[in-house]
Amino acid sequence: TMVAISPPTQGPSGLKAAQLSAVTNMLALSNVDADDNNKSGGGSTYGQQHQQQQRDANPWKLLIYDTHTRSIISPLLSVSQLRSNGVTLHLLLNSDREPIPDVPAVYFVQPTQENLSIIARDCSRNLYERAHLHFSTRIERPVMEEFARLVVNTGGLSSVASVHDQFVDFVCLENNLFSLNVPQSYCVYNNPGATERDMELAMGNIATGLFSVVATLGCVPVIRCPRGGAPEMVARKLCKLIAEHPTLIRSKDGLHKSHNRPVLVIMDRNMDLITPVQHASTYQALVDDVLDHKANRVEFNVKQDANATAGRGRAPPVVRKKLDIDPDIDPFYSQHKFNPFPEAIESNGAELQEVSAREQQIRSKTGGASAPAAVVSPGGGDSTELATAVESLPVLLDRKKKLEVHTSILQAVMNEVAARDVPQFYELETSLATGSYKNDPSSAKKEVIELAADPSKGNVNDKVRLVIVYALSNGVGNTSDIDEVAQAMKESLETKGSTISADGAAGSAAAAEGGGSHGTLTKEDRILLENGLRAIDYLKKLRSMQMIPTMSSMMQTEVSGGTASSGSDMLSSFMARATNQATGLLAKATDKLGTMLGKTHKHRSTIAVENICEMRPNTEDDEYLYLDPRVRGDVDVAALRNAARAPVREAIAFMIGGGCYGEYQNLQMVANERRSVTYGSTEIVDPSTFLNHLAKLA
After folding, report:
1. In this structure, are strands 222-225 and 625-627 parallel, antiparallel, or unpaired?
2. Which helix or strand (DSSP H or E) is residue 299 part of?
3. Whose C-alpha in 72, 502, 627, 673 is 20 to 30 A from the C-alpha of 541?
4. Rounded CA gap, 154 and 461, in Å?
5. For residue 281, what are the CA distances in angstroms to 58, 223, 666, 668, 677?
């Protein structure tokens, strides 16, 4: 065989650090050495001596990837970081590529038939000096043998330097957040037309992706999941993959960690369909909800200064901003991404004011100088202090620049929050989901109809999401009530339109004045309404068949950030600061943010993970399957009750069918000084995308 399986990555703790280490080793052409080969249980190191000579002679190389593996690398390495790793050029596999015969190429791709055919053709043409082939996951033996025959028959064998299975087939967006990047995953396994073979294939792919996560961490987890359905299928397949892998199951490092093994909790999206559609109140979740946000890149439109086009009879131009924000490295974002949105604005204003004052202080001392060379030292202690201050100026300016990036993002979010009255939707949805209306269903229906039928509140998707939360909340309405609410929303939108259109722009003048006439909905909004009504019908069907639980009995209230009065004080402070800011939009909308402060609620997945981590009897800890790849057969949890179990120091919560930033943030309530919680899912979806998935199943 030509395959050399890389061992689990050792080194810095954390999933993202481990994946980054594996990728940088791959780019350094250092994955194959004798010691690693012995650890991986065999496999030829084809071209090993040539590889070492090549590293010594030429540190530069090309990186060839497909669209899937590009999404893996993007959150890990920037273009400049790729260059520092010796990558002079990075190209898509299926693009037109010119021959560069004196430079080696690192191929990092999925092991698909199409990709392998392209690689074989490259090798036969001697496109590059040597080809180092790295597959994102395991290449099956029959596929590998067919590829080997193809390479030999086309005369490209001499171009192949080495072949590796990397087991990094997941996207790590943050230290504690990953995705398998499976598109429309909720549709895949809930499709009533799916065959048994389709389900086996889909669940097998998810298990393989999770195996990459486990292999990258380099330790064997205990697997917990509800009985039956997709979670059990994935859990059993994953358990088998781990048990049959010699590197993982026999590794000394895995045995060393056996007393502190992570717990992997695999769950089904159908256990909680409110969280992916509910409006959020925290900074990161709101960014993902109201702006274009994907793979840590934020995009939004900014209207230029109206004075620039004054007198010319033209509307202010709109510029598209694209900003990359790293949730682990960016100090402001890492500290405030889980905070309520008003707190994030308050902190941004305070930090920016502090940095600006410090900058002004340094510049005034140096007469506007921005470099140490401008300081003339007469030998006194004051000059040394001044030189130190000036030297710190570049760091200070970099911090100011990053804070200003967040100021622009916060302003863009505020524009949407204010225009769509997001806090009003958030407050009513939270009350519905936590059972506040359980004893007063008539008031619940009345308030939902009022908000859903108000043309000045929210866009089409905001209203659909509210109706879905109402439909899934326990004790507030039956099927006829849901029909009545949905019909009221539909009639209002069709006759009065919506102030806010699908793209976030203000609607017609008539709609903005609260009147409007038939036809005020845009074409895009009509499509959204049709999709929304189909999504509601689909959930009504699931509810009537009792295939999904209702939510209010499954959420717990927990006070965070102080009492209601302290939240009011914070809002007053925020209003005072916002009033003094140059941009009037922040000041204008501050009165709409009060409901975003105060209490948070533990979502269904958070409660389940916490019960398992705390080993609480008569909860999910007793109900969920307990699978240990080191043990044959299922483990009896009841028998474990009489034994001393090690405390859970690391939990991995994985959601089949799509996850969201609101759920990721909520799960951090289980984390503490002694326990970390990593969140993963088949894909990360924003509320609008998830609505589309529901509509497709109707």
Report:
1. antiparallel
2. strand 297-303
3. 502
4. 54
5. 52, 32, 11, 15, 21
> Which of 683, 687, 680, 531 has its CA nearest to residue 185?
683
How many angstroms separate the CA atoms of 5 and 579, rounded? 60
Tell me the residue type at 107: Y
- Cross-strand pairs, 29: none
Q: What are the E-state strand segments in 238-348?
A: 263-268, 292-294, 297-303, 318-324
Helix (H, G, I), strand (E, B) or coil at 469: helix
DSSP 553: G
By C-alpha distance, which of 570, 567, 682 is closest to 276?
Answer: 682
The structure's pTM equals 0.86
With contact defined as beta carbons under 8 Å apart, do 24 and 85 qualify?
yes
Give the Cα-Cα-Cα angle 607, 277, 200 (nearest 5 degrees). Answer: 75
Cα–Cα dist 460/497, whole Å? 9
What are the angstrom distances between the C-alpha of 443 and each of 438, 448, 489, 578?
10, 8, 17, 35
H or E element: which one contains 556?
Answer: strand 556-559
Q: What is the mean pLDDT of residues 623-649?
A: 87
Residue written as token pair 């709609």:
511
pLDDT band for position 56 (cuts 50, 70, 90): very low
% residues pLDDT > 90 (the chain): 62
- Would you state the pLDDT for residue 496? 84
Question: Tokens in use for 326?
Answer: 């790293």
Read off the DSSP letter of residue 10.
Answer: P
pLDDT value at residue 468:
96
Taking only the tens place, the pLDDT of each residue in 16-48 is 999 999 999 999 986 444 334 333 333 333 344
DSSP 139: P
The percent of the chain in helix, strand and coil, each rounded to the nearest 5, is: 50, 15, 35
Cα(8)–Cα(218) distance, rounded to whole angstroms?
5
What would the pLDDT profile of 500-540 be if each residue is shown by its tens digit? 766 555 543 333 344 434 457 889 999 999 999 999 999 99
The CA distance from 101 to 130, in Å, is: 8
Output the six-digit token pair for 520: 């005020």
